[in-house]
Write a structure and sequence with these properties.
It contains one helix and no strands. The chain is rod-shaped. The chain is mainly α. It has one helix at 4-30. The protein has one domain (1-31). Residues 10-21 have a biased composition (Basic and acidic residues).
Length: 31
C-alpha cells in the first residue's frame, strides 16, 4: 500500500504534466 506522501507526489506530477499539456495546447491554438 502506498503512503500519502507518495500519492501527493504522484498527484503533483500529474498536475505538472497536465499544465504543460494545456500550455502546449494553448500555444497551438494561438498560432
Amino acid at each position: 500500500m502506498r503512503q500519502p506522501s507518495c500519492q501527493s507526489c504522484e498527484n503533483h506530477r500529474f498536475e505538472k504534466a497536465r499544465e504543460s499539456q494545456s500550455r502546449a495546447f494553448l500555444a497551438a491554438q494561438s498560432s
